[in-house]
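Section 5.1 Outputs to date
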Amino acid sequence: MDRGLKVFTALLLLLLVLGIYIRSTTPPAINRSPTYHLNDKIPLGLYILNHEIETIFKNAEVILWPKSFYEYGMHLIPPDSIQGKKTDETEQDIEQDIPAQISGTTSRTTKDSTVTWSNGILHVSRFFDCDATSVRSLLDYIREGNHALISATDYSEDFKKALKIRTVWPAKYANYENILINTGAGLPPVTGNWPYSGVYLDVDSLKTYSVLGYTCDENDQWMPNCIRIKWGKGAIYLHTEPAIFSNYCLLKNDNYKQVEYLLNLINGEDIIWLVQGQWEEALSDSPLRFIKSQPPLRLAWYLILASFLLLMIFNAKRWQRAVPYFHPTPMPPSNLSGRSAIYISRKEVSGISWTKNHFFLERIRSRYRISTEVLDNAFIQKLQAKTQCTPADAERLVFLIQKHRDTDYECTHDDLRRLNTAMERVETGSRMMND
């Protein structure tokens, strides 16, 4: 490699090492996105709650349900109450569709397909996505004497329509207590803006409900952000600040007391935690996530990268340097006359005639694309057609070339002069054609 390429390679490697050092020493940016994923350790993940929830519900079994509540309700129905005839294959398919955490719970239903014990339902997310069928199944389940805590900044339209509520987002945000404040329980207030939303609930005036927590709106008025709605024999607790359950809030001050109070509202024999969309492993944002998820493709990708690296190293060491081009210096006329004088003094006329024949036939091959292996009548016709010389000149030139090349004839100066004249007459005809 020349000096310039070496300097460029050294600078490139220096920049690469510097970039790696800066990236390794710079602390990673904090991910503030509200994922509420059970395995996320970011500020707004639920990693701590997922690992500590069993200590809160010591006498209850926590069931993680990664599907819609309608499917959980179908699982609770005894087989003899389902309309129509079931085959063994259908029953087996339903049993295989049930996670291992709750397998065997169908035997815990009573007659008339009603649940007589008190269970709790928990959901913590940014948005409670519940279709109309799941809403009906959830409300019927609560009506039988169960309790549900839904903590989300917004709810599906079917759910809000069934409960006759709506969520209100403040136009601006003030630094006030905005999480559950239960004066009777003596809980410490929670202050600050981030990561709380300040969303509050607006309930139909005909609906009977009790307020458990408040938030301050843009007009400095206290609005409900946690309410209890009586529903049959059970109750629904709506909470608009799911951030209180996040890793960040649980580790800050005494916020965990708010979480303990909220979760104790739904304490029962079983706690069904609805984690649809929060149970699976989080997908990577990398465009190569599918390749990296498959071992054969991942190995092939690493082999390709290694091959390119080896190719770059090999080319850097074996690359052919540029060869300088030197223009030949034209021979001055004095050298030509001197070289001719040497040939004449040595009387090597035959060598000169052989050289002239050789170079002349080479020009014929390269310029006119005519084969010179056999100098017959066909060659004479092609030469005359290409050079536009007379047939007599072409025949005379071929005769002289064969005479000096194919025989042991001793060439004289007069023969050489005649050969040169014949060649010039043929080339003169060619130049006239080009002009």
